[in-house]
Amino acid sequence: MKYKAIIFDLDGVICFTDKYHYQAWKEMADGIGVYFDEVINNRLRGVSRMASLDIILERSEKNYTGEEKEKLAAQKNDIYKKLLEQMSPADLSGEVKEALDELRGRGYLLAIGSSSKNTKMILKQLGLDGYFDAISDGTNITRSKPDPEVFLKAAQFLGMKPEDCLVVEDALAGIEAAAAGGFDSAGIGEAATHGKVTYPIEAFSDLLSKCSL
């Protein structure tokens, strides 16, 4: 096998929580009178919570202190976590679960590499609590994508070198992070258009046949 492990981004790859992020950021932004729409929201994909907040506050006439920003980010996260309670195993597509099970059956180690601090909660809601061999997320990193830290730590947790791992991403910043860390990558959606992606794929199940696994 060319790879021994596969590291998956969470949102946009394993599941889709974009609508919850958007609703939470929108409610927070509306509360402070800052314009926010789906175009701005698209800039937040693959970006950490505080970096996302900085993007939203670009349109604010007020300069917020670090403490004020922390409160706004916490407010957004509280709204978001409340919305996540609506998620269930029904939000995990059959295609994704079947492909994950097949990859595991073939002997690959499976890990999550996500900048979200809510990764474990989301996995639990999806019925994937304890499923992955390692989880690297926003609770154990200090730099978000396109910095490769989240993927490097996932590989470290698995006891693997970057060249032994394939990263699966949907965001351009994620492909950039994978390349910076020395990982091959499979890109789905927008990530498939990145010049540094190793394998552009159209569907999650394409991992089983198109990535020289």
SS element count, helices = 9
What string, H for helix and E for strand, traces the elements in order?
Answer: EHHHHHEHEHEHEEH
Q: Radius of gyration, rounded?
A: 17 Å
Distance between the termini: 6 Å
Strand order of the largest sheet: 3-2-1-4-5-6
Q: What do the pLDDT scores average to? A: 94
User: Which segments are poorly predicted (pLDDT under 50) over 5 or more consecutive residues?
Assistant: none
What does it look like?
It is a single chain. By secondary structure, this protein is of the alpha/beta class. The chain contains 9 helices and 6 strands; from the N terminus they run βαααααβαβαβαββα. It has helices at 18-31, 38-42, 49-56, 66-84, 94-105, 119-126, 149-158, 172-181, 207-210; strands at residues 5-8, 109-113, 134-136, 165-169, 184-188, 199-201. Strands 3-2-1-4-5-6 form a 6-stranded parallel β-sheet. Strand 2, helix 6 and strand 3 form a beta-alpha-beta unit. Helix 1 packs across helix 4 (66-84). The N and C termini lie close together (6 Å). The model has no long low-confidence stretch (mean pLDDT 94).
